[in-house]
Predict the structure of Labd-13Z-ene-9,15,16-triol synthase, chloroplastic.
Amino acid sequence: MGSVLAIVINSPSLAKEVLKVQDAIFANHDVPAATVVGTFGGINILWRPNGSRCNQLRKLVVCEIMSKQSLDACYVLRQREVRRMVKEIHGKVGSSVNIYEQLSATALRVMMSTLWGDDPSQDLIEFRKRLDEIVITFGAPNVSDFFPILAPFDLQGIESKGKEQVSWFYGVFESMIKNRRNIRDDGKEKENIRKDFMQQLLELHWRGDEKNSLSINEVKALLLDMMVAGTDTVPTAVEWAMTELLCHRDKMTKLVKELDMVVGNQNTVEDSHIPQLVYLDAVIKETLRLHPVAPLLIPRVPSKTTVIGGFTVPKGCRVFINAWVIQRDPELWDDPLRFHPERFLETDINYRSNNFGFIPFGSGRRICVGVSLAEKMMALLLGSLVHSFEWGLSEGTKPSLEDKFGIVLKKTESLVGIPVARLPNLEQYQ
Ligand code: HEM
């Protein structure tokens, strides 16, 4: 690729070599030129070089922000937004519903309220548009990445566009942070209120002890990381799951049976049901196996020259781990192209199990920090869509399984379904 050597890993054994055996050497993500300016030189988690500060930030997010206690505390927000989605779809029974649009608006509302609470002044459509723009800008092929010597010239204007787009978010965060600072200075902070992620991060910033403190720029960068990484991935995965279920009605029937047995038709799907919904979990895993949302993970860059599978891998080259191919490897998976969630009922493979044939969230030092939240959101969204409605399609149509390859593996065509209400009363969603 231009003047930069790119290597693609297509086998689980070589993926293990990169993500486990030589993890320390491959623990840097490839940082696109456009993001360096936009994220204050890569101080966020995603683009930060491997090292002690990166580990501290990761630990802080995983142990504090994504802890069971913290995720349980913001469950009411997930519940409220999923109920809102079901009610909205209920108002459209019998007509065509763009499933991705519903999921995407819900995931965005969940992320925004989880990150900084409710702010009625914020325009959801504006946020969605701005996030889409950032993903397009940073995902666009950039000459500066292929020929780093040209980076200072920003020939396509991608770096300046990225900077402008990121600045918009930082401006929004700054005014929210200013309000929080005023509230703190006025001593008006209420005790025992649920602390959103922004408040937790700010308290670490204010606490200021050497090990855990965060600079204000790091607070803003982490908030943006979570917005970008968390809002499109979950709805994309759930849209793929619905598509597979509509293509495989026997699997849909099996899932409905499980939901009726565990949840019943007088209740809504809740977080507390998730551990018992084993078939739902298997459907989500099988979906992520066939349609990994990040098909090439996030490319890695070795910090020194090394050898992988007998080949020399030079320092500074770009290493792509092809989860899409690995997760369809016939040596590992029986009948690999078949959508067969049952395969996950027979094994204890999970997202962190060090099975290098199944890596939808990556693995090793840079494994996704949002796995716990993503698991909960995917289960709640998919479980609620299937439990609340029977889904049909317009006459003569079949859902397409065609994908568009990119940083995020999207469907070529959005899934449009026709819902019919299944539950006896809508009061349950109030
Ligand atoms: C279905 C949902 C999701 C999928 C499939 C997914 C997948 C991934 C993958 C493949 C990586 C790169 C891992 C590697 O290099 O080995 C990653 C990194 C990351 N993800 Fe996720 N992700 C999801 C949801 C989320 C959510 C909800 C958040 C946060 C709220 C999040 C935050 C991050 C961050 C901050 C990183 C960078 C970690 C680092 O650089 O050390 N992700 N994710």
Notes: Residues 44 and 221 are 5 Å apart (CA to CA).
